[in-house]
Specification:
The chain has helices at residues 3-27, 35-45, 50-61, 66-77, 88-94, 104-120, 125-135, 149-168, 172-182, 191-207, 212-239, 244-271, 276-287, 298-305, 311-321, 329-345, 351-372, 385-400, 402-405, 409-417, 420-424, 436-448, 455-463, 512-515. The chain is mainly alpha-helical. Helix 10 runs parallel beside helix 12, helix 11 packs across helix 13 and helix 18 crosses helix 22.
Length: 542
């Protein structure tokens, strides 16, 4: 016998075996009427648990067909009063039934049994709701826009049941939130699963709007975990020659984040600008305290575009944290980073708003410099870290928005009024703590317009090795609204995103010819965390 024919015969045997097994499942097991009632009676009235154990073992071992499921569920509905803690194993195994893929009769009976059970035996609520949420994480397909009709119908049955549970037992919403947290998929699992669970948690907010804050907070917390892990894995790829496995894991994380961001953007479109207050709150609690994310914060950039009248409100929220002595340096530096990033990158923010906040920043810096002339004590390893961050983002905005700021004589007068030379030349020497690419861009722009001459000081800093230690530059080297690179969800961002535009006489960015199509504002950066080239590992994703 040839190898080919032998292999064919083995395949045929396997197929016959599978067919016989399926046939056995359908025909060999016939559930008797009142089997559940009989088993529970023997367990509780006679103290004999054999029939109960056999029933549980049978239900675990063999999937039920529609006919058997109808018999079991009809019987269970008559026995909910006896299904307390002692019947935990039976209840748990019934929740493993693939009820939402079966006939309408099974779906109806299962839903009725669950509602009757939880009304009579609230003890089972955490397990029941947790089991339903696990079903919402099941997915064998990836989608853009919405799941297939088949998948959507499977989810719809579960959502209908959850809605009925909450209607009958209002306090179950607390259990629902705890279960949503406990059952959130691991961030490294299949991207389809992360997408499905995110999609379905957002679906829950449609019929239980009181949970919107809790569920959105949960989702963004988990997306931040994925986002930060992408950054960490990308750093590992840059530093590890054996990076194939790490790169594969990073690809899955990127796919997960991209699909989940798509779900969030679609949800925002469905809800409109009325969710902005909620977004403001979640941003402050979840996104703002997290350093180093690359993508999740774009939810706020997109959200503000839904109602630009609210932009000043949000910018002021960010600014109020910067001079506040009631919060630590980290949140203040994060606030100025987000503020400057939005001013630079959000296409819907006008030049007047940019000028207002550059003015506020420079006024605060002048006040800070003046305060240093008086005797005072500074605690901490880097007592001037907030000052250096604010200075850097002033330099960043002047360089990035130079076309708008120097578009006419009034713009030039405005920039002169900022008294930038006093900030640049002060004893704190902010240029030495500034990111090198920004310092070079700012120095070239201000030299062209004869605002301040920085190159001599920068060369002096270089000769004297007056460069900050790496750890003190942590918040100086993060630009939260650098180009968005997630391909599927980028269609929500690109129309409202401002790319850097050089002028004919612009000598600030000498890498234009080298970088081609890249947004090259920080392309000359020696630090891979800042340059857009740090995202090269993401570009092969379609």
């Amino acid at each position: 016998m040839s190898v080919c024919s032998s292999r064919t015969s083995h395949v045929a045997l396997m197929r016959n075996s599978i067919a016989n097994r399926n046939s056995f499942i359908e025909t060999a097991v016939k559930i008797k009427e009142n089997i559940v009632k009989s088993a529970l009676n023997e367990l509780f009235n006679e103290g004999n648990g054999k029939a109960y154990e056999d029933l549980v073992r049978t239900l675990r071992a063999r999937p039920l067909n529609d006919g058997n499921a109808v018999i079991v569920l009809n019987d269970c509905s008559l026995c909910v009063g006896a299904m307390g803690r002692e019947a935990k194993l039976l209840v748990e195994v019934l929740f493993t039934l693939n009820w939402n893929t079966m006939s309408e009769k099974v779906i109806e009976l299962f839903s009725k049994w669950v509602l009757d059970l939880l009304t009579a035996q609230i003890y089972h609520a955490p397990m029941a709701i947790g089991s339903l949420l696990k079903v919402l994480a099941k997915s064998d397909e990836m989608w853009i826009g919405s799941p297939s009709l088949r998948q959507a119908m499977m989810y719809s049955h579960v959502h209908n049941l959850i809605a009925q549970i909450v209607s009958v037992i209002p306090m179950s919403t607390e259990v629902l939130v705890r279960s949503a947290i406990d059952n959130f998929p691991y961030h490294k699992c299949n991207p389809c699963i992360n997408q499905a669970y995110t999609h379905n948690l957002l679906w829950i907010t449609r019929y239980i709007p009181t949970l919107t804050d809790d569920l959105l907070t949960l989702i963004l917390n988990r997306l931040i975990i994925i986002d930060v892990n992408i950054r960490n894995n990308s750093d590992s790829v840059n530093n590890d020659i054996f990076d194939i496995e790490v790169e594969d894991k990073t690809d899955d994380l990127i796919e997960s984040l991209d699909l989940c961001m798509t779900e969030v953007f679609q949800w925002m479109d469905q809800n409109g600008p009325e969710i902005l207050d909620l977004l403001f709150s979640v941003f402050q609690r979840v996104i703002l305290p997290t350093y180093g994310t690359r993508n999740v914060q774009f939810i706020m950039l997109y959200g503000l575009s839904k109602d630009v009248r609210r932009v000043p409100d949000f910018l002021e929220i960010l600014w109020q944290l910067v001079p506040s002595a009631r919060v630590g340096p980290g949140p203040r530096q994060a606030s100025i980073a987000h503020l400057a990033g939005l001013l630079a990158r959000a296409a819907y923010i006008n030049t007047q708003s940019i000028k207002i906040y550059i003015k506020k920043m420079t006024e605060w810096c002048h006040s800070y410099i003046k305060a240093q002339e008086m005797p005072s004590s500074h605690n901490g390893k880097n007592p001037h870290s907030v000052f250096y961050s604010v200075c850097q983002y002033i330099f960043y905005l002047v360089a990035f928005k130079h076309k708008e700021l120097f578009s006419d004589k009034n713009g030039l007068i405005f920039v002169v009024s900022l008294n930038l030379p006093k900030i640049v030349m002060c004893s704190l020497n902010p240029l030495r703590m500034c990111h090198e690419g920004i310092a070079e861009a700012f120095a070239s722009i201000t030299r062209i317009h004869q605002i301040v001459y920085c190159h001599a000081l920068m060369e002096q800093n270089l000769r004297r090795h007056l460069r900050a230690e790496e750890e003190s530059l942590e918040h100086q080297e993060w630009f939260p609204y650098d180009p968005y690179v997630l391909p599927k969800s980028s269609k929500w961002i690109l129309p409202i995103y401002k790319e850097y535009e050089e002028t004919v006489n612009d000598v600030t960015l000498k890498s234009v010819e080298m970088c081609g199509e890249e947004d090259d504002f920080l392309a000359t950066s020696p630090n891979p965390h800042l340059s857009k080239s740090s995202f090269n590992s993401l570009r092969h994703i379609n």
